[in-house]
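Task: complex structure prediction.
Instruction: return structure tokens for all chains below.
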Amino acid sequence: MTTKNPEYDFAWCPGCGDFGVRRAIEWAVERRMDTLGEVIENTVVVAGIGCSGNMVHLLEGPQPFGIHGIHGRTLPMAFGIKGSRPDLNVLIAAGDGDFLSIGGEHIAPQAQRNLNVTAVIMDNGVYGLTKGQSSPTTALEVITPTTPYGKMEGALNPLDLYLTLGATYVASGISSKPRDLANLIYDAMNHSGFSMVHVQSPCTTYNDTFEALKGNPRKGIQPLAWNVPDDHDTSDKAAAVELVRSYGVPVGLLYQDPDSVALDERYAQIMSKQRTRTAQDLVDSFAFAVQ
Amino acid sequence: MQQDKDFIVRFAGEGGQGMVTAADSLAQSAAQVGYFIQTYSTFPSQIVGGPTWAQIRISNKPVLSSGDQLDALIAFNREAYDTHADAVRDGGVIIYNSEEFELEDDGRSFGMRFDELGKSTGNPRAANMVVLGAIAHLVSWPQQYLNDFVVRRFTRGRPNDEEIIKANIEALGLGRDGAATTSFDLGELPSIEKPDWDQVLVNGNQAIALGAMAAGVDTFVGYPISPATTILVFMEQNLTGEDKFVYQASSEIESINAIAGAGFAGKKAMTSTAGPGLSLMSEGVGMAWMMEIPLVIVDVQRGGPATGLPTKTEQSDFQIALHPAHGDASLPVIAPGTVEECFTAGAVSLNWAERYQGPVILLSEHMLSERSQNIPTPDVAGVVDERRQVYRGDNGYLRYESSTLSPMPVPGGPGSYVANASEHDPMGDTTHRPDRHIHMTERRFSKLALLNDGTYEEELANEPIVIMPWGGSKGPAREAYDELLAQGIQYGWYYTMYLHPLPDALLASLKQKELVIVPELNYLGQFASYLRSLGVRAEAITQYSGLPFGVRDLIVRIPELAASMKQGVVKS
Ligand SMILES: Cc1ncc(C[n+]2csc(CCOP(=O)(O)OP(=O)(O)O)c2C)c(N)n1
Ligand code: SF4
Ligand SMILES: [Mg+2]
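Output:
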């Protein structure tokens, strides 16, 4: 909406990874409209607070519905939207701080419910919007404004966390490969269940990890990012756990539960067997006759 | 013997001794023959045991409060006797469980062996019936009332129905005979004119839930907390049917954000909680105000702050209900004062939220949640299911352009926009422009004017000094008011459950008064101070014991406050 909108005054820094993620989301949503014939108004983008959350204002092309709520609460809002309106396609766009730190408490319950939404988590290993403080994915001993003597906790492994908590679709992407990322997001939206697409989306201003991810042979830097091998069995959770615990950042689809039953499916199945109770029925159930 | 209009009995003992069942049985049997009844019970926080009591008031007129002058106390153990004996009025009677303890003859107590007598009928659970039989004797209640009740209650189509009915009726007789060996007598309950309207027997929480159902609530998400849990449980059980969604959340933060999501997605959405949960919801409520999303939060108040007194009553959440969030926001607040009003509030709160497109607080309290009462059957068909204005035009719509309420797009339909918790421009994108913040702030507040249809009570409007209670203090305040009138001490009477925004005409009248006396259950005098901020000369009568007001106290404190104000001394 930016091109049309002179009042909106936020912009990503040049080279920010979130540009690539935006392209990927646009492609994935457009492909969904083409293949499923779904109108764009059927998609709701629920954004977190952070540079990354500005995604919801910066998407170009056909405009979905959007929510730019409060810090860390994308999942609970998505839960209310999808629970009450299973016909909608709900896509979360959040940062590592938003999703894993302040919002971390919401991952376990939604994974357990197998809430049928897709979350795209833009991980830059830093709090971008608040200017560079440490985040859950910042590595041990890194110096930031809030860890002036070095970070005292090691980095969280988000992929391991999602798998452990029971997410039924777990993929890892990288913002510099938006085509591949678009495919992962598209597949995640088609997966019926709790879908995590965790994206390395470097912050060029406070934590530029492009080189570390891609590697640089001339400087002798080994790439942190590597492709999930073709022969990886994506229905094998133990194998996925092994991959994400091995080294660096595996990129690609790690796990998809072939037997996933999403909350909306289970809810409809159980509740369709229940009798509809009208307000009148209920009031009458408290009635008594005066003798 | 005094001229009793009604009869108040309290059952006190240890959790698990059947206090609540006894009170309920008495209540149902009285209601079934046409009396007006109200029960009130308090529970200890522990699950098993602990001191508990349940009280019932039976009257031939509608009952306003649970009453504080006991005609009879049934003490199941020594502690219960020690705690509650003082509440018995002069001329009242105490029946105690003499299997547990003995008392010297004090001219107002007698012992009975409830359990032993109960068990002698062959039904180990008939002790309650022994007690009820004894009470029936004291108020000269026809044996038939209770017998009929037992037959109805235990006719359940099971093979042993008859056996159980026989044992219970025998137990009633044993109780009656036991009491008859004493010379105690509480007079007769005045006869009744049977109400010619249909009735339901419900408590405040059930009434709120029924009101919400009648107004078409679609989505309910809540987290268990006393004294609000029973609303969640009711919804889990009953909010079935197509397009309905009900779920137990993992926290109140999840509840508020989930119903905000549902409200955004076009649904009539509600949650219920108590003070600690409302505190956690704070940021989410501000978000709903900012985004202009309809939703309702039911806060069933308990003693606070923090974890406070989970099972006691207090009216100390008024200020947080009015201002639950940081920043410039003040929420509509509806605080029912009776079980009947709980039904209305359940419905109107949802309709208000839809109408002004924002969050509404329904402020109830423990006192109402645990109060069962027979009320005229609520008119479900008469409840309006009001829905927001939905935008149905073309794309490219600017939801937030106008300076007041505008139709709201619903996902799946046209007019996509961003619901933004940051200050936003007409399309919902973030902005920091001063003119926009002014415009949007004024827009949000302007919508409160759409909620000016609140009703209120007004009596003796020419009096310069008036009483204006709110919420559950209405009942005791009204009884005190009536009693003072009978004594020739006259004040005006004002009452509304629509605390914010106050009905315009009501506020105009209040501003004319020399003194508005507000009995309220908190230390700060929260509602009185709100009235003062609106230009009303209001003073609070406060109480913060975890208990409802006693009518006797108010009869003393109201004239005291009125007199001290006349002398220019503020005392509260
Ligand atoms: C309740 C609350 N606490 C703190 C903030 C301040 N805040 C805004 S964004 C942010 C961190 C964002 O980090 P991340 O989610 O990683 O997003 P990024 O900017 O890196 O994309 C914080 C702490 C806030 N808006 N709300
Ligand atoms: S601060 Fe970092 S994350 Fe934020 S826009 Fe700039 S580069 Fe991107
Ligand atoms: Mg970040």
